[in-house]
Amino acid sequence: MNNNSMNMAELMAMLAKMDKKDLEQGISKVSEMLKNNDANSIINDIKKNK
């Protein structure tokens, strides 16, 4: 799935499948990425943790 083409229905379906802990961790990572100038390193960390 290409992140640029994700629509809201796909996003909501994905979020609905996540449990609360995973959702909180995901939101935390997104928050870190938005604050951090080196977003690529965080993205790579997320990919490694899958």
Defining traits:
50 residues; mainly alpha; 3 helices; 0% strand
Return the average pLDDT rounded to an integer.
76
Structural class: mainly alpha
- Give helix and strand order, one letter per element, not per position: HHH
Strand content: under 5%
Helix content range: over 70%
The tally of helices reads: 3
Report the count of strand segments: 0
What can you see in these coordinates?
- The structure is a single chain.
- By secondary structure, the chain is mostly helical.
- The chain has helices at 8-17, 20-35, 39-48.
- The chain is globular.
In brief:
The chain is mainly α. It has three helices and no strands. The longest helix is centred in the middle third of the chain and has 16 residues, at 20-35.
Outline the secondary-structure elements:
Blueprint: H1 8-17, H2 20-35, H3 39-48
Helix pairs in contact: 2-3
